[in-house]
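Pasting as-is:
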Amino acid sequence: MHGKIDLSEIKLIILDLQGTLISEDEITDLNKLDLRILELNEFAKVCSLKGIKVIILSGINNNKVIKRIEEKSHVDLIHSSINKVDKANKIAAQYNLEFDSIMFIGNDLLDIPLLKLAGVGAAPKTARREVKRIVDYVLPDDILTFLTEKLNHS
């Protein structure tokens, strides 16, 4: 991480899904995916109390995973999105937000344009090296727990 993470100005957290929020292991094991979704719901609840909206923006098109998240999660999921900047522009307009108040967490080359545009760009420590070089923060493995703790203590 490049210094202390500051979420005080953040109004929207956009999470990439595959490789950021869920691992390959969780994609193939629905029990593990369900546990991650429970954790995501708790994170979204803490964010909501702080006035922060959470959205998943993913290029994934795995129908089984998408359906499971849509059924069990309290977080909006926008999937099959290769051009994440266009989708993020629509989301920002919908919530009347500037990109300065948006945090995006991604892990792959397709995420770089949005990571550069967001007010706060972050990546898991397992992200591609090219991604970690351009973000504001490199986050520990358990992103949701880490961010929940930061929000609870802010």
